[in-house]
Design brief:
The structure is a single chain. It contains 19 helices and no strands. With 495 residues, it is mainly α. The protein has one domain.
Length: 495
Amino acid sequence: MAGGRAELAALTAAAARDEETGREELRGTARGGLANLLGAAVSGAGGLAITWLAAMALSPAEAGAFFAATSVFLLAGGLARLGTPTGLVYWVARLHRNGRDGAVGSVLRLGLWPAAIASMATALGLLLAAPMFERPDLVRLIAVFLPASVAMEALLAATRGYRLMGPSVVIDKLGRTVAQLIGLGAIALAGTASAATVTFAWALPYLPAALAAGWYLLRRHRASRPDQGFPDRVSARAFWGFTAPRAAAGVAHLGLQRLDIIMVAALAGLGPAAVYTVATRFVIVGQLASGAVGQSVQPRAAAAMAAGEPASAQALYQTSTAWIVGLTWPVYLAVGLLADWYLRLFGGEYATGDARLVVWVLVPAMMVSSACGVVDSMLSMAGKTSWQLIDVSVSLVVNVGLNLALIPTMGVVGAAIAWSAAVLVNNLMPLAQLWRTFGLHPFGALTKRTLLAAGLGFGAVPLAAAPFGPWWTLGALAVAGLAWAVVMLRYRAAI
């Protein structure tokens, strides 16, 4: 009898510890997530402002050339990173959680040096292939700054493995974005805007950002490396066994986000590419919100899965999904309801019927994506990077196939249909795998309430006001926004 009571007491104490661990994980995620969301807000607004500046300062053809060049830059960078950002977050978080900080150095060497070599090789390849592009001058320009972009991403990922969100926010989301805006704004005011000068101002800030990221990581690594008296390291086989599938998946994922712009430019022209870029830029808000929350969730999810704490991982997933829905659905629904006003912000030549259809096609797909939460990050942090590679590869095939079939006949609307289909595949496939294999899903009570409230407040009510005119719709959205801000602040206090 006494033994039974002792066992029950031990189980109760263990459950209490697990509950406290879960609450601490949520508090840590909330703090990191809020910092990231602040940076994401600046970065998202900055991204829209950059698109607006390019659209206003350049002709549609020149703007299309700039948008296509930056898409090539991001795709090439995704290829050259070799998946190391996710690998570094995963391994540094696990080693740090298990008290093996002495092994972090081996992980940094395994990830950073190959990425540096690959970035230089990719930059050289772009320089050699530049004559194949319509604007070879822009391709040569972005090739110069490609290694700095790869270095910045990898170095900041390692700091996030230590659960430090500040460097990513300050150096990348704030510092780099503000520097890009200052450069583009100065060029626009000076009246010297061209595709080449705008591209240079956009790419240059990656260099000081990479230097700052390297300096911070070096300080942090030296401060946390204990002298254990024996060598501790992670093998190359273990590191790349996790990271290699993520490398291909990362390229495919970037392809989903940027390849359509390149394909529109190649199949329909630079002018339509500019229209398509402008019409789809609202998506960046959701991508940055998901990325900001995901960056905070990744190291904690990896540590929770490593420690065999699925309840903590589930709580992280559901809470982060509620945040993502709460931040993105109002934006998506507002843009969908006021599509004409949104498009006219970039100039009258972009407010076309096709551009409006692009917005309406993408809005529901992006809402589904937000409702799935950081499903991609959760699957990778569970160690299933090979599954992730299959999922994103299938999605990319869907995207490319539909683009080739639809762009020649439907133009930018066909590209939007292709992207929407690929987004749905890329979210629903991993969600089914995560739910069936690990029992993890994003649809907790808080997520359901957030979905319902956002759908009613920013969808059903403003839509009911639409027959009375766009100002009534705008007023309904404004009232919903004020109420929503109060709710979000109250939820933040509860965390």
